Amino acid sequence: MALIEVRFERAHDAASVREVNDLAFGSPVEGQIVERLRAEPGSISLVATNNELVVGHILFTPVVIEPPVGLSVAGLGPMSVRPEDQRAGIGSQLIRAGLEACREHGYSAVVVVGHPEYYPRFGFEPAHTRGLTLPDFDVPQDVFMVVELEAGVRERLKGAVRYRSEFAEA
Asked: Are 163 and 75 in contact (CB under 8 A)?
């Protein structure tokens, strides 16, 4: 396997990040979301590179829990890896590095809408078991998950999770 470096996105990475998202998802929607959100306060945007070529990307943005719970919570997504580089562990590296970056930036938990067979290996569990709901999106309960980054916040993670409006506009 190639040596992959995971680092924070830099300004000159924007076009490559867009390309990776477009290729991975087969549409421009996710790339447009990233372009609207990457510079927003609290956003964490990481890339995976192979010899300086961007082969993967992950974005975390602040979400709101209603009623307020007094915790900083991030939403993971989108995450993308070039199709020819998928199933090589790059997504796992991005998630692990991203969760650590979220922890370092003061996030207490991260939520994701994703594959229920994939995300539990990183500690994610169904969000509904914590009393979290996702009223703005019609998704099956098992695809909406949460991971605790700060010990002892489990009991406070209850309420309706609201992603930034850019996700609904996509």
From this structure: yes
pLDDT tens digits along 44-85: 999 999 999 999 999 999 999 999 999 999 999 999 999 999
Q: How many CB atoms lie within 10 A of CB 12?
A: 8
5-169 has CATH 3.80.30.30 classification: no
- 141-158 residue pLDDT tens: 999 999 999 988 988 999
Write down the domain spans for the chain. Answer: 5-169
DSSP conformation letters of 147-165: EE-STT-GGG--EEEE--H
What value, to the nearest 5°, has the Cα angle with vertex 160 and ends 91 and 166? 55
